[in-house]
Amino acid sequence: MAVKVEKDLCIGCGACTGVCPVNALTLDDEGKSECNADLCIDCHACVGSCPVEAIEAE
Vertex 15, ends 13 and 16: CA angle to 5°? Predict the structure, then answer.
């Protein structure tokens, strides 16, 4: 399972993209975080890195 990004909460700071060990998180065209489920290894490093709690483990 991949993490879920709440796009309405995401502020586009990129903190999650910097901590993802497999580069599964990127910023989309609107500057919001998105997760590539095929790459995500469920380490949840991004969950703790988000300053606005926009990412949650599923």
Answer: 115
